[in-house]
Design brief:
The protein has 363 residues and is of the alpha+beta class. It folds into three domains: 104 residues, SH3 Domains (SH3 type barrels, Roll); 65 residues, Roll (SH3 type barrels); 123 residues, endopeptidase domain like (from Nostoc punctiforme) (endopeptidase fold (from Nostoc punctiforme), Alpha-Beta Complex). 18% of the residues lie in helices and 36% in strands. The protein is built from eight helices and 25 strands. Strands 1, 2, 10, 13, 14, 15 and 16 form a seven-stranded antiparallel β-sheet that branches. The protein has a six-stranded antiparallel β-sheet with strand order 20-25-21-22-23-24. It has a five-stranded antiparallel β-sheet with strand order 8-7-6-3-9. A hairpin with a 3-residue loop joins strand 23 and strand 24.
């Protein structure tokens, strides 16, 4: 992921949290910007400059600062210019309904090396009329130009897509029900995990834990703006000895990535909640499950989380009460209907402390 650091201050709301990396979208694109956004040239217009941020004021060691611009104005302008593309020099955004194939060479029969999910970002290294050479996450390869936004269009799309996250900077972060150290500890989150931010309230950060809003200490997280990146093929593969039905279930579940979360729903396309998603995925394979995470936790056979195979269920709790379920898909990851903001997504199995694991498939 590409991160843009944001200082934590009191009583910040989501609009306040993204002052860096944003553009003035009230300004009409120039003819040159429109040409670069839609033309076939391999050039991209790059990051917004500090001079762009300050409109038509010149900036330089030989220029006297205009009286109505303070030193802070200029410092902010340079910071905004530096981060206008969220750390990318030539930003690209996947313009697809599911995933954009990344190939080792610029050819339709090139070996697949990764997937760029819908709305994920990449660095555009070079491009012609047909192919773009990109880097995203740990993936380097080629994608079709037909499904990649660049230039001003990519920047405008990124404005819509950037999410604010709190990255855990301590080994085991306590997640609390209220913003004080006397409040109940709901779960523990490991170092490096990212939590979506709702607001910053003094020394505490309000974050989303699936469909709950909870609190973490601002002392132990870094708040940043983020764009999604590519997934490697190895992240999509499974270990040896996994039955075909388990692989099929996981692959089937992934077809619905990004689809909506709807409380009480069971539709894989129009919306499902966590247990509704699990219920509907397993229904295709002739397995009947109740529509409740707590009830599903009583089905099958309880196993250790460390023993989970792709297709097993992982349960999470609030205190001692189970309130969320996900499908383990291998490689330390789960797929689940998380919340209305993210819909169906893939997370690390330890994105919050697992409560228990259950084996439904007895193969």
């Amino acid at each position: 992921m590409i991160h843009t650091s944001i200082p934590v201050r009191a009583s910040m709301t989501i609009p306040d949290l993204l002052p860096i990396g944003q553009l003035d979208l009230d300004r009409e694109p120039s003819q040159e910007e429109e040409r670069q956004a839609g033309g076939s040239s391999g050039e991209e217009d790059g990051a917004e400059t500090a001079q762009d941020v300050l409109q038509e004021d010149a900036i330089g060691s030989g220029v006297i600062l205009i009286a109505d611009k303070t030193a802070e104005d200029y410092a902010l302008a340079y910071e905004r210019a530096k981060n206008a593309n969220w750390g990318y020099t030539n930003l690209g955004i996947a313009d697809v309904s599911d995933n954009l194939n990344i190939r080792a060479i610029a050819a339709e029969d090139g070996r697949l090396v990764g997937k760029l999910p819908k709305d994920a970002a990449c660095e555009v290294i070079d491009m012609d009329d047909t192919w773009a050479h990109i880097q995203s996450g740990s993936v380097d390869g080629y994608v079709s130009r037909d499904y990649l936004l660049t230039g001003v269009l990519a920047k405008m799309k990124a404005e819509e897509l950037a999410t604010t996250v709190a990255t855990v900077t301590t080994d085991s972060l306590k997640v609390r029900a209220e913003p004080n150290t006397e409040s109940e500890v709901i779960t523990l989150v490991p170092r490096g995990e990212e939590l979506e931010v709702s607001a910053v309230e003094g020394d505490w950060v309000r974050v989303y834990l699936d469909d709950d809003e909870v609190f973490v200490s601002g002392e132990y997280v870094e708040v940043t703006a983020e764009l999604g990146t590519a997934i490697t093929m190895s992240e999509l593969l499974y270990g040896q000895g996994i039955s075909d039905v388990r692989v099929d279930i996981c692959q089937y579940a992934k077809e619905f990535l990004g689809n909506p979360y709807v409380w009480g729903g069971t539709s894989l396309t129009k919306g499902a909640d966590c247990s509704g998603f699990v219920l509907s995925v397993f229904k295709k394979y002739g397995v009947s499950l109740p529509h409740s995470s707590r009830a599903q936790a009583n089905c099958g056979t309880t196993i250790k989380v460390s023993e989970a195979k792709p297709g097993d269920l992982i349960f999470y709790g609030k205190g001692k009460t189970i309130n969320h379920v996900a499908i383990y898909i291998g490689n330390g990851q789960v797929i689940h209907a998380s919340n209305p903001r993210t819909g169906i997504r893939i997370s690390n199995v330890s994105y919050r402390s697992p409560f228990k694991a259950v084996r439904i498939l007895q193969d």
